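Please, structure for the following, as tokens.
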Amino acid sequence: MSEENTKATEDKVEEKAAETKVTAKTETAEKKPAAKKEPKVAKEETKTEEAPVAEKVEVKEVVAAEAAEAPKAEPRVIEPVDYTKVKPLDEFDWDSYADSDEMYTKEEKAQLAVVYGDTLTSISDNEVLDGIVSSITKKEVVINIGYKSDGVITANEFRYKQDLKIGDSVEVYVEKTEDKTGQLVLSHKKARTTRAWEHVNSALETEEVVTGFIKCRTKGGLIADVFGIEAFLPGSQIDVKPIRDYDQYVGKEMDFRVVKINQEFRNVVVSHKALIEAELEEQKVVIMSKLEKGQVLEGVVKNITSYGVFIDLGGVDGLVHITDLSWGRINHPEEMLELDEKINVVILDFDDDKKRIALGVKQLQPHPWDSLAETVNVGDKVKGKVVVLADYGAFVEIAPGVEGLIHVSEMSWSQHLRTAQDFFKVGDEVEATIMTLDREERKMSLSTRQLTQDPWEGIESKFPVDSKVQGKVTNLSNFGVFVELEEGVDGLVHISDLSWSKKVNHPSEFCKAGEQIEAIVLEIDKDNRRLSLGHKQLEENPWEVFQSVFTEGSIHQGTLLSLTDKGGLVGLPYGVEGFAPGRHLVKEDGSKVKVEDQIDFVVLEFSKDAKKIIVSHSRIHESAAEGVKAVETGERKARGTATRKAVKKLSDNVEKSTLGDLDALSALKASMEKAEKKK
């Protein structure tokens, strides 16, 4: 198709479209009076305009193909119609108008259909779209959305927009396309809210950076206006470093990233820190690539914790552990540094993968051990302050960064197990002697007990053998009692040296810790710092006297104290205990002797060395077959009875204790010797 033909076709289409538009308006104004006058003609026109379906499809395809090949037409300017010149319906040439096939070609019809379709609008309820302000009053704003009627919105919804004018494009929410009165109901406020919620959700999905206005401060953070929605900005998400003053951000605009949305409660959480971290990550890659161990950098104190200090190195953070702040001991990093303080640090180590950097401050200064005076040697007296206490000892700082250990064994000459807390507390000023010194290993051991005299010096003169001493019971063990005579001098009373006459199963039966006890020094081992003591040695050995009293065959009244599987323990006069085998605890009537029964017992065996007496009750009433032995036993019994009578007054004064009464036993011995001579 040539350019001339194309242009002619376009002009013809424009003319026909103008005529069609004028005709349509004329019909509307006159309410179609022609249809009543000439109904037959109208029917014929309707039939004439109808065409077969196949022909219509073919026309559409041809027109579409030619429209694609034809160059795009320039925008048409339609002049306003002068309705005064339109002919009345009575004078309109309906016959020529009814023959549309002669008026328009297929191409022109297709183009007219497109033009007509563009004038139609599809609007539904709950839809957000843009409209044009067509009128403004004090109370209302009229909005044209291309619908059959305009919508009216209260002016209060536009209070935030002071410069609103006719012709402005605004977003509106279609609440109802037609209410009871046929009015279009719109809302600008709901449109803003709906659009804002769509924008916020989209920003969360696409990680879009949004801009908001900080309205006010709230508990734990700030409230920001984002797309007209109030979003929460937590204090921890304002910046990568802790923020102490939130008010400085109120009234300012900030960029955010939407990080969380609660669809149920319509809550939005934003973060400014996320944007900074994204930028810092890029900076970290650059900075980390330039780091080297031993490199000295300048940083700013960003945060202080109990375990260390975080330093900002200009986009990447490093940690100075509390042990790397000073060669000396410090309790908290706040003793040395403050927030926002600029300091020099040295890189000790770093991890590219985890983006961790270990820094040090004390490494920039020489080690105090290297500057320790050469005049300090073993045996010197030094003064220092206790900085750390442990169960095994105390660390004393004699110079900044130079510490020595006083082991708990070097705090006192005492051999008792104690802890360092029993002697010192942190901050105490102490004086000690250097025991060992290793400059290469940077170790030093100290002693405070060396400043006092060794109590074992001259021990032989202070506590000679066979001397009587008194001390405090400090510990009880299965084998004896430990007695402290003075600070650093302890002795042991063996369990066998507690009592002459009574068998002691455990020292707790004899005494308790903390009690005072007397003893005799039995032996001194100065080299091993051991002292053997005895308690029973305070009295004369009563078994020398008992040997004459409890002779074999003598009969004595006793009390059964307890029973075991093998026999029973029998209490004899003078506090002596004997043992009766089970078969010797049978009475004359065949019954068994019961506990606490007081009956006679005959001595079967006496051992002074073993301190053992074996007695029997059954032997007293044995059969007549042992008559001879019974006679001898009777004589011995009589002799024993006479002896008892002779010393009756003395026996009443004998104390039934573990040791007995030495004076009473001596008197008993003398009385027995006198009785033997008289006999």
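The two ends are 175 Å apart (CA to CA). Residues 207-276 form a domain with the OB fold (Dihydrolipoamide Acetyltransferase, E2P) fold (CATH 2.40.50.140).
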